[in-house]
């Protein structure tokens, strides 16, 4: 770990000195509090925003409508808060380097603002205060100039330190190597308070707390309060493509380059793994071939949807919640059957909720299920119809006759006295499908029977058997319907 390089990372981009009481602005720049901070004092400040989540792949056909524009950044406080993480890192470096006596005297201003690294030498031709001072590491080519020769000697002295600890003559020239604990302590200070791992893509909130960008998004799924200080945070959309903390990002990449790269790779792998299993939304019974509008508000499903949207064809499975209490055993089997929903359009709301339009595509059976970040995932097998055997086709009424029975019953319902049935009919999209394979689903949507009973259609691989089951329900309703109606009317 190169202390000089660390120190360089902590230079203020405005005054080029070590940051003093740093505060991080919504643009991601960290500057000393003494500078004007609103707007950002850096000329032409235009940091690249972080790509908004979810990252919709180019091949995706989803109509994704991002959240409405974020509200303006909250007005700066009279005394801006200090950036908590950077302050801690500065304090840590100060504690390591503060007592060292080997500073040179040509930069008193820097000495005043913060202790300097003894391994840093400032070149005589160092640039003006408009940009960070160029610093020279002691390990650079020793033949470069006199300063570097000195650096070389200091380095050599450092190597001898362990074997000759009492050579006082060289004490002043001795560079202070980072104590073994510094790396560990720095890693602790640069850990995210949500995942407890090294910060990755750090984002600093207006309350000056820093989290991994992904962790902050997941925290915002649950609450608009800062996970650390409980300060109110601007809404979800404010952080959607929020620029990262540039100082911390540079510091992380400088201090822990291998670890930082590994973190990025691990996060990408985690995202990939999350897409290997089929996400399952446990909500309601849906049959194939129908549009469904859904409101995503639960934190776990918000995350699930974001992950879905990063696929070329975003889709997830939908199953009914398992029935509890009486009859639970009977429906346990059908609880493993569901329908895939393809996401067609998403309207994100400013607070992270979303309205989602889907189209149900095919049925599936869950072979194995697990949980990922709070939602169900599964290994599934697609269920398709198989051709009916001749004996099944010839037995009983034909498909057309079964469909006519259904249609007649629906007309009977329309003529009946139950307005809610008519309402239910009106809510069903489109005309009855001509295809017997889809017809039974369409009728079942309308029938006033238990949803768990209707779910028995999902595992059936024969259109004809589905029709028969629906006609069976109609017969049962016919047997009980008029009796029930009679009770109501008379
Ligand atoms: Zn400054
Ligand atoms: Zn800026
Ligand atoms: Zn984190
Ligand atoms: Zn906070």
From TrEMBL:
Lon N-terminal domain: residues covered: 275-478
Domain RING-type residues, every copy: 192-230
Listed GO MF terms: ubiquitin protein ligase activity; zinc ion binding
Chain segments carrying region Disordered: 51-83, 99-182
Keywords of the record: Metal-binding, Zinc, Zinc-finger
Biased segments, Pro residues type: 65-77
Biased segments, Basic and acidic residues type: 159-174
Record bears the keyword Transport: no
Name of the protein: PUA-like domain-containing protein
């Amino acid at each position: 770990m190169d202390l000089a390089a660390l120190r360089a990372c902590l230079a203020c981009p405005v005054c080029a000195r070590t940051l003093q009481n740093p505060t991080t602005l919504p643009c991601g720049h960290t500057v000393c509090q003494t500078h004007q901070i609103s707007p950002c004092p850096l000329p032409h400040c235009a940091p690249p925003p972080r790509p908004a989540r979810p990252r919709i792949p180019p091949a995706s056909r989803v109509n994704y409508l991002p959240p409405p524009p974020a509200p303006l950044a909250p007005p700066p406080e009279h005394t801006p808060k200090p950036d908590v993480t950077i302050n801690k890192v500065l304090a840590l470096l100060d504690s390591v380097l503060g007592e060292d006596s080997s500073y040179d005297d040509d930069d008193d201003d820097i000495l005043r603002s913060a202790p300097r690294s003894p391994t840093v030498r400032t070149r005589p031709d160092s640039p003006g205060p408009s940009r960070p001072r160029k610093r020279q590491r002691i390990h650079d080519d020793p033949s470069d100039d006199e300063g570097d020769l000195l650096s070389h000697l200091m380095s050599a002295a450092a190597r001898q330190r362990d074997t000759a600890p009492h050579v006082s003559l060289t004490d002043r020239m001795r560079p202070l190597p980072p104590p073994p604990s510094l790396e560990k302590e720095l890693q602790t200070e640069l850990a995210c308070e949500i995942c407890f791992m090294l910060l990755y893509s750090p984002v600093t909130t207006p309350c000056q707390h820093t989290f991994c960008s992904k962790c902050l998004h997941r925290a915002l799924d649950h609450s608009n309060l800062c996970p650390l200080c409980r300060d109110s945070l601007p809404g979800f959309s404010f952080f959607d493509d929020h620029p990262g903390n540039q100082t911390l990002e540079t510091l992380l990449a400088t201090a822990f380059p291998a670890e930082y790269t590994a973190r990025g790779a691990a996060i990408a792998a985690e995202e990939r793994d999350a897409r290997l299993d089929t996400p399952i939304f446990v909500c309601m019974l849906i049959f194939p071939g129908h549009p469904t509008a859904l409101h995503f508000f639960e934190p776990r499903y918000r995350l699930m949807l974001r992950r879905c949207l990063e696929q070329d064809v975003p889709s997830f499975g939908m199953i009914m919640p398992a029935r509890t209490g009486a009859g639970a055993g009977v429906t346990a089997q059908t609880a493993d059957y569901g329908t895939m929903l393809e996401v067609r359009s998403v309207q994100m709301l400013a607070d992270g909720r979303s309205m989602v339009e889907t189209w149900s595509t095919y049925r599936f059976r869950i072979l194995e299920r697990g949980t990922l970040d709070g939602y169900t995932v599964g290994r599934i097998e697609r269920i398709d119809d198989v051709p009916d055997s001749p004996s099944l086709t010839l037995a009983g009424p034909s498909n057309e006759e079964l469909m006519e029975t259904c249609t007649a019953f629906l007309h009977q319902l329309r003529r009946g006295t139950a307005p809610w049935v008519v309402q239910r009919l009106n809510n069903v999209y489109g005309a009855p499908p001509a295809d017997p394979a889809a017809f039974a689903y369409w009728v079942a949507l309308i029938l006033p029977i238990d949803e768990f009973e209707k779910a028995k259609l999902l595992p059936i691989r024969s259109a004809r058997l589905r029709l028969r089951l629906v006609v069976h329900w109609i017969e049962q309703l016919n047997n009980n319907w008029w009796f029930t109606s009679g009770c109501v009317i008379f």
